[in-house]
Fold:
Amino acid sequence: MEEKRNIGVYICQCGSNISDYVDVEKVREEVAKINHVSISKTTMFACADATQNEIVQDIQENNLDAIVVASCSPKLHLDTFKNVAERAGLNPYNYVQVNIREQCSWAHSDKPVQATEKAIQLVKAGIARVGYSEALIKTKISAENVVVVVGAGVSGMRSAIELADLGSYVYLIEREYFVGGRVAQWGELFTTNETGKETIRRLYTKLMEYKNITLFTGAEIISNTGTVGNFDIQVKIRPRYIKPGCKVDPEKLQKVIDACPVEIPDKFNFGLTTCKAIYKNFESEFPEIPAIDPEHCTRCGECEKLCDDIDLGQKDEFINIKAGAILINTGYDPYEPKTGEFGYKEIENVITLPQLKRLIELSGKELIYKNKKIHNIGYIYCVGSRQKDGENKYCSRYCCTSTIYTSIVIKNKYKDIHNFHFDKSIRTYGKLELLYREASENGDIFLQFWDEDPPVVSRNGNGTVVSIKDMLSSGKELEVDCDLVVLVTGMVPRQDNKIADILKAPIGRDKFFNEIHPKLRPVETVIDGVLISGACQGPKNISESVKSSLSAASKANSLVKKGEIELKPTIAFIDKNACVWCDECLKACPFDAIIKTQLEGKDVAEIVEAKCKGGGMCLPVCPENAINLKGYTDNEMEAMITALAD
Amino acid sequence: MSKVNTALASELQYYGAKEFSACYNCGNCTAICSLASEGNEFPRKMIRLSTLGLENEIESSLEPWLCYYCGECSSTCPRQAEPGELMMSLRRYLTARYDWTGLSRRFYTSEIWELGAIFLLAAFILVLFIFFHGPMTTELTAEGGVKLNTFAPWKTIEIGDWIMAAFLSFFLLSNIFNMYLKVMVRNNKVKIPIKLYFTTLWDLAFNFATQWEFSKSENKTKIAGKQFNISPYWIMHWLLMSSYALMLILIMVFLGWFQTDIIYEWWHPQRILGYYATFGLMAGLIYFFYNRIKKEQESGKHSHLSDWVFIVLLALTTISGILVHFFRIYGLPYSTYYMYVFHLMVLFPMLMIEVPFSKWSHLAYRPFAIYFAKVKSAAEKMNSKN
Amino acid sequence: MEKKAPKILVFSTEKISDPAIDLAGLLKLHYPPIVFTMEVPCSSAVKSKWILHAFDQGFDGVFIAADGTDCAYDESCTEKTGQIISQTHELMKEKGILPEKLKMAAICSVCAESFVKQMNVFADQLSEQ
Structure:
């Protein structure tokens, strides 16, 4: 690599933000002495239009082969000056920005002399770096205007509709046989009072109007070989064992269901009831055709005898989809308490919040559990969330509101029920605060426990007692007789999260999918073209899930609609002559961006450019030091270190 | 270990506490309350005990009596849980709990009992007069006044007074003793040396006479641009209370001098004292009526039936008393007699119900509560020194 | 001979710790001016070679302001960065450089105060040595 011969350096005063503490003229004088620096200037505001034009002019008139601007943080103006370089016909990667404001003049405003010395060295290091910088060209790849949405819950369906409206072709892939995800399981929902079922029915009806949405149920992504713009996805579709043209007759369906000899816990009702191998969770569930669960079906053939539309001979189907982007919308699982956690599975009237919600759906005019009419319900909050010692340190956000809303529904629906809330402090944020107020006014009693002193559920003769040291009454020890104890369980990531491995989507500290930046890039992952939304990214209520799914939809569409995608050029490259293929780099790469190839008969590693994210994890692990990262090569880094140490 | 009891919250509704379950324990009420101190979380502690239904602890608490309803807590409450009104309701509740006869609870929680008792007692007086009244002479005295003592000789009335006073004292004192048992004996963990009851007696007397705590409000009195460090509420309350006490002394102890057929000059102490008491009662009544109707001060925003009964009866007693006086002086015999009967028909139920069983008993419970609290804290101090 | 103030080289990361160091400047939280920051995409991308080069060139201490669990690339970032540290410690031992001269700590994107504290402590430790 050839060193630059003709470098322009600009030192910004930033009004007085820099020049008040750093003697910019002295910096300029020092810098001007360096070989190959042909232009050095100080400027009031480097980012001002006039200065930008001046830099463009300087580059063109003097044939500069690199520029350095010493000003504020690159987070603010890196792109500004890259554009300046580009306008002047200079490759933007031959530009280096030196931060002498946040990391020098402001940080050392107490020591102006040293700040000036530091600034000189920082600028020298920038010049050293740009000396080795390489002109990089962004690669462009074609992109399919097709988006795969994984998961047909409320946010998956909503984003599919949005994408279809924006003109993308959408494949909506649902693992279950029916759409709706968790929301279909819930009754009345807070703020709208619409039931979950109704919400899903509305979305499904709308979804069916679109010709550019294809829905697969009982389907799963099993592999992906492509990258952004051109994901190559294989989908496995399990059979329903029912012919597609089946016209469902509810009476006949009931007879067929009755005939099925298999009886298993019904996971739609969280095990409160049992179901058969052939099932439909509720009448208005979509798609309308029932399904047979291949895992539990014994192929006894009883159902086939009663109905011609049943075909137990159906086989798995495999299809391939080419897509430009993938939107993960796989939702969450409710936390499953451990046996004995607050008496769960040991004391018979301890259930979870999702179970309570199903119980209300299944109950008539009275709330009855295990043949006992319920009068006192105790809710224990933060089970599986905000854990002090457990894995789940996070707050699940939706549960306080959901519990309080459920307690209000119970008050309205049944007579003579008292609600007791054992909480860690209530977080019904925003408008939802009104629900908290309503519950209090209903006479619900709120008791608060300390992290280290959780309530205890115990049997007392025939009844169950919850005892608590109540923070709100200065630690008074209190007891409540409860005939139903409800564990308010939080959200946890899906147990079966194979999709994360298949797409290499990053998982965060709490084991949910992780975004690039929580504020500025909240629905993108570091895997280009893989977006996340809804509760698979972290606990969210329905409206928050839908908000994020809409933003992910528009982000996915804007990525693929141009038919062409630019890739970041700062990726790793391998010196194949030095490489001995030890596979350390492959192991270090979280994105499978390294493949084995051949060079003159020996095995060597190669970077898959479209997959490399430029994170650099492979650099330090190479025993031969055969890997470098563009923009951060040994030459650049060591030159900078030398300059700084000087 | 105490059991949470939801029944109390519904019971307290009858005593007027309707909003307190909205409390979400923010503690604003305690922060603003001038009575709150560390370990004594006015009024949040009482709200919490009420929410949880811990009846025994409420029963042994003195806090409700120490609160003088300045209303700061209610106006600061972000959830309009009306903590001040809860304290008021707890005073009614405690009055009922101290009363061993159970009548107080009936009066507070049932309109039929309250109004029924008033009419019954009024009817009793009426019946007594129908059968035992003296001659209704139209003959006037030399000065032209009505011969009231002929119709209702003061000696006879005084006997009635004393019987009534015995009843009232018996019930009120036994209720105070009940209060003593609940507060100082049961549920009490501090050992209290007997001599403390004597050394703090002055507080009892002082507070009994002045009800001084009412003066400590944020709301200060302004007279001619000068601000005084006492609340107008206290001034009016004291005016009312002292007038009523004076009147009580006049009719209980000096009835023969007070209920006379002689018409004194206007400056005579018999008339001056009577007028002062009447003026005090009227001024106080107008103030409290205004307060409850206008609802500007927190303490006037919520009115329980017992509050109205009290001021209405007191007003009727006062007005009828004034009319008896003037009818007598201006020589209107029948008007005097009928008004006198009516006066007693209102006065008698008012004293019988209000003094031992209802609102007026607070004038006794409050100073006793301050007294008991002083004794307790002195005992605690002694114990911590040992 | 007058003792020279120690020179510290910091490797910060583009998305996580560098914004924290910027924030320290914005808040005018002062730290020694002999701290020089170089930004990399991820803390698990720092080569031992670079660290040793820094010591060769006269730096007294090297600090890796790691992504910790906030890393957007990989959840094993902390572990990988830790491996780099221990691997480099071995190499430093061979060259007779005290291992205390290389440190790492996770600095989140708003952990300005924590960064400043780390720098002040590290500078003190280095000048004692």
